[in-house]
């Protein structure tokens, strides 16, 4: 009887140990995936911002020129890439505030090229940077 009890305790201990190991590894993998998705989104929005800057400068040089048309097309591609990363975040989390801040980062960044004069262009760029920083600050607090 004692031998059977010892065997049962050993089996239960093994199963408990395996379950806890799995749980901790799964949790670490989820955190790693979350960090990867959030940093990819931030990188995509930064690229979108670069594309918006380029679009504005090319337009200010020659609004009918080939360089502007190319920059405009590239800004659309980069906005789409940022949106794709946004959808990855949506699949990963239901955090409404995180999603709101991510959406805002894309939307505010898309406004950069709409400025008429340089002061507004710089203000739009600063607003885009602040929107991305707000997203990153919130995401960092939600680890």
Write the layout of secondary structure elements.
Blueprint: H1 2-61, H2 66-92, H3 96-109, H4 118-141
Write a structural description.
The chain has 143 residues and is an all-alpha fold. It has one domain (37-141). It has four helices and no strands. Helix 1 (2-61) runs antiparallel to helix 2 and helix 1 (2-61) runs antiparallel to helix 4. The longest helix is centred in the first third of the chain and has 60 residues, at 2-61. The protein is rod-shaped.
Give the SSE string: HHHH
Mean pLDDT: 90
How much β-strand is present in the residues?
under 5%
Q: Which shape, going by the Cα principal axes?
A: rod-shaped
Total of helices: 4
Q: How would you sum up the major sheet?
A: none
In terms of structural class, how would the helical and strand content be classed?
Answer: mainly alpha
Distance between the termini: 49 Å
Total count of domains: 1
Which spans have pLDDT < 50 for at least 5 consecutive residues?
A: none
Radius of gyration: 24 Å
Overall number of strands: 0
In short:
The protein is mostly helical.
Give structural attributes.
single chain, 143 residues, mainly alpha, 4 helices, 0% strand
